[in-house]
Amino acid sequence: MEQPAPAADARLRYGDQVNQFVDFFLPAPAGPCPLAINIHGGFWRVRFDLTHAGHLCAALAAAGFACANIEYRRAGEPGGGWPGTLVDVRRAIAFAREHAREFRGDPGRTLLLGHSAGGHLALCMAAENIGVSRVVVFGAVADPARAWKLGLGDGAAAEFFGGGPGEFPERYTMRPPLCPTVLIHGTADEVVPAGLSRDYTGARVVEFPGADHFDAVDPESPFFAETLRILAGA
Prior knowledge:
Layout: E1 10-13, E2 21-25, E3 33-39, H1 54-62, E4 66-70, H2 84-98, E5 105-115, H3 117-126, E6 134-138, H4 144-150, H5 156-161, H6 169-172, E7 181-186, H7 195-198, E8 204-208, H8 224-231
Parallel strand pairs: 3-4, 3-5, 5-6, 6-7, 7-8
Antiparallel strand pairs: 1-2, 2-4
């Protein structure tokens, strides 16, 4: 994914803060098509934005999904971190579903995606009744307490949650999903170890042997065809 990310077809704001917006990608078919809402990763930090996820969203649109790439406040900016980030994600998902039909999407068939720390946020949403049909995450920080213990992202978990699990156990607790959920993880992931997904309960776990942290969401990766097959419901 060395080429610049494809531009979205439209950008709409769901709030008045600079990072409260959604990029929409029109599907190739006339629609209505399933709506895929993507939560990008980056260890919850403000310096990592949604731009890199444009490759994934454009590929999903070409594959027949109306795609919404959501941006949200993150650790390191006013209102970001716990709980503001989750507030934004919740609002952005509702906003994307409200506007889905404008972009040939069917809000009744909403698929929520998340990569890395975005996978953690998607799993948090999976534990709520937010109207999504299915959740699929990639290389997710599915066990934030273990991420804290391992020091992943140079202390990213403590930065996002405002401290460690001993101080805020309720913030680190992951509740079981309320909708069908799939965790995809590469066995060669050196950013977020696959064990964080293996130990997650209440969901299907699919391992991609030899895949790294980005392979499952990289349209140029040989693993991406399997990603599309899973997203299609196989």
